[in-house]
Amino acid sequence: EAQVTQNPRYLITVTGKKLTVTCSQNMNHEYMSWYRQDPGLGLRQIYYSMNVEVTDKGDVPEGYKVSRKEKRNFPLILESPSPNQTSLYFCASSLAGSPLHFGNGTRLTVT
Amino acid sequence: QKEVEQDPGPLSVPEGAIVSLNCTYSNSAFQYFMWYRQYSRKGPELLMYTYSSGNKEDGRFTAQVDKSSKYISLFIRDSQPSDSATYLCAMSAQNDMRFGAGTRLTVKP
Predict the structure, then answer these.
(1) Does A50 sit within 8 Å of B43, measured CB to CB?
(2) CA spacing 20 to 30 A to B95: which of A50, B13, B34, B76?
C-alpha cells in the first residue's frame, strides 16, 4: 500500500530534550516536506526537500532540523524543544509538481 | 492579510443538503488548486485537484476555480454523515503550496 508513515503518533516530552520524528514514504517520491498544523493557522511548512541531500527552509523553520540521506526517509529533529513547538506535525511527499500525500500526523506536546 | 483565506466554520448541515465551501486567495501566480479532506486524527487526503479556471466534477463533489476573482469553491451534493470532516483548500505555484486554515463540516443524520 502506497503510504507516508510517521512515528511516533503521539509524543510527550520536556523542554530541552532532543527528539526525532521519523517519516518514510514507499512511493519513490522526490519531494518531501514537513508541516505543523495549529488551530486557526492551518498547515505551515517547516522544511522541504526536493531530492536526496537537498533541503530548504519553509515558512517556520526556527527550532527544527531535517536531513535527507535517503530518498524514502525525511526525519524531523528538534534539538531543544520548547513549549511553543507543541503542535500536530505532518510529513508529506509527492512527485515533483503533483499533489501531496500526507502521513497521519504526530501530536507533540512539550511541557 | 493571509495569502489564502478560508472560513473556519464550523458548518453544520442536515443529511442530504448541498454544501458549499469557499476560499479566496491573493497570489495570482497560483495555478493548481486542491481540496483536501481531513478526518479527526488523520492526515489530509486529496479530494479534488484542478488546474486553472473552470469546473471539475467527481461523483458528489464539484470543484470550481475562478482565477479572475481569485476564488475557489467545493460543492458537496447529497451530503452524508461520512462527509463530516475538516476541508482544506490548497493552491500552488511551482513548488510553493499554500493551505487555507480549514472548514469543519458536520453532516447530521
Answers:
(1) no
(2) B76
